[in-house]
Fold this protein.
Amino acid sequence: MGNRFRDALKWLAFGSARFPQQCAIGLREPQQEVSVWLHGLGAALEVTGRNVVVAARPLTIGIGLSGHWEAATGTQPVLKFRQRQGENRLLGEIGLRLTEVIPLGSESLCVFETGDCRNYCLPRARLWARDLHYSWQRWRSGKRSDAYGVRMTARELRCLFIFYICPRPVVLVTVTDGNLTNIFPMDLIGPVATRYFALALHGTSAGAPLMERSRRIALSSVPVDTMSVAYDLGKNHKRPHIDCDSLPFATRRSAAFGLPVPEFSLRVRELEIETVRSMGSHKLFLAKTIEDQCRADGLQLFLIHGFYQAWRHRAHLQGTARG
């Protein structure tokens, strides 16, 4: 009886006890649920397909923009996340501070550190209670955070949760250096210019040295029904190389570099790494697309935060009731 009473109080304060920090969903690429807009650098710019986390600590976001930019002082840009259809509702916003501009041909990768943020997916009281409960859990476990294996601040975590309002695709990265090969999942990836991708890999990942030496990688889109395979390959971030013959799936050779990629891949992009930079907790790889092949049509694995999943569920119920 006592446990049920405590659970009821917890539910009233925090909502469902099963409220997840991360949810896997299946969408077609490019996702059409959420748009991302950059405000504060002149006219508002849609950057839905050109924003990526480039470091977790300090939490840093890279945004690809056309033309050449300079790191201006005194500006306070804001990244806004909106429902793409229906009421175009504002779901969240992250304050930014422009720190660096990296030229990418005739385009630029603008690098921003994050500041204050606002999350509109749940009522403010519920968000405050969630934040309090999460802080208590972190204190109880004796950890500040284990997100991406780094100690993020509470403010950075709130910004990261908002960043994942926009669905983020998961890919499997294949890299080969001589006789050494590794395949591991990544989600801190995304296009930032016409032919350029940015990939952020934790500095301690065993795959980083392979990528630095090889400079050639393949990104394989993951069907949502094979997400358990992708999650299982997460252990390869701690392995300098793997035995491809022991993989639980068939592979084929990529078109340009001949890298082993999963047979189930929906799409395979082959990239040549041009620049490697240390960005706090992560290494940033800037790579140019050499080959891009769509192999099958299907729902791809994307990650979203539980806040947005709760909003999606509530919006679906409201739409069903109106219908």
Q: What stands out?
A: The two ends are 40 Å apart (CA to CA).
